[in-house]
Write a structure and sequence with these properties.
Helix content: 25-40%
Number of helices: 13
CATH class of the largest domain: Alpha Beta
Number of domains: 3
Distance between the termini: 25 Å
Largest sheet: 9 strands, mixed
CATH architecture of the largest domain: 2-Layer Sandwich
Shape: globular
CATH superfamily of the largest domain: TruD, catalytic domain
Order of helices and strands: HEHEHEEEEEHHHHHHHHEEEHEEEH
Amino acid sequence: MYCSAPRIDQLAGMQFYCTLFDGIGGSIKQRSHWFRVSEIIDESFIESLSTIQDTKYRFPIYILEKRNLDSNHAVLEVERETGIKLKVLGIKDAKAATEQYATSYKTKNSPTIVKTRNALVNLKGFARIPLTKDLLRGNEFRITVSNPRSSEISSFVDEIDKIPNFYGLQRFGSERLVTHLIGRQIVKRNFGKAIELILSYTTEYESPFSVEIRNMSRDPSNYPRLLRQLPKGMDTEYEVMSALMDGKGPVAAIRCIPIRIRRLFVHAYQAYIFNKCLSNAVLDGEGLSTAKPGDLCFESPGPLIFGKIKKFNPDIDSVSKTVPAVRLVGYTFQPGKGRLDVITTNIMQQESVTPRDFYIKEMDELSSPGGFRQSKLGCSGFMHQGSLSLFFKLPKGSYATTLLRELMKPDDPIRSGF
């Protein structure tokens, strides 16, 4: 029998721990260099880079290193301090030392190195084609777990293949678990309620100062004073509050948030429904590691590789070379009769949303068609020294904290570094 997860995990749709391992406790991210993430890019793309920019090799490719802020804010910091607009492939957490690939919208006179307060940008070379998400294969992690109560994890290693591919707490705002709640209100066209959540939603993990500011933001008459007091970490709130002060309505105020950030709201709501689907599948006793007849599945001939999607046929398809695929809700969502489609459809009914709700005509740039995501984590190359030092690789879009929560089984994920 699987044990229930902590309340904050449940609020993000992760109802259970899905391995029988007892957990080693401890904490992560005590220091940023104890949680290292490096992107894995298609090798042929890297090998094709030129050291010289010309008419064929036009696109600059950089390595962005950062600490103590997430990818979106790192990109904003680089633009604000240097004027260089970067595009990155994935979003990396603030509480980590990360290396990721980036390109610039500017294709002439590319700088070799750029340094800001929290980021370092190094020119890797020049490419013939733009940098796209199709080139991203995954991420490799080097992680230190602090103060575990046990160093014996051999039985956990045997269960790694059973771990569902949950979206981690970072997708939802971590200690301020609000991103998907905002997304839900946007999808339901409750834009005023979305604004209210952006400005005033609080959790038990916020500081008394933050709680005071958010409580004051419930009264628009406090906006002039608050705009002078908001800390730098509340830049989203600053943009929204300023827009409201200028007389803009809720839709226009939300549009003042950088597009990279406001898209996360709808994506987080999709992620919540996905997590709920996996949790309900676990509750129903459905195995998520291997495909079953009627499932949609990815062809997966090797680690980190997910090919075309097809309906699983046990007569011709190898269980070891396929991975069940889950439909992400969106305006193109057309469920079949497979077990995971049925679960997702039931969740949407409980949420009182339909596929067409994800086409947001009031903010078309936030509309989302949906897509597919693998059902299991797909960890490869797992190695460890005791339980303190871990090394492993995950496919793009998968979360190291999803593996770590099963290894550590924290009583309080936020205070344990999640």
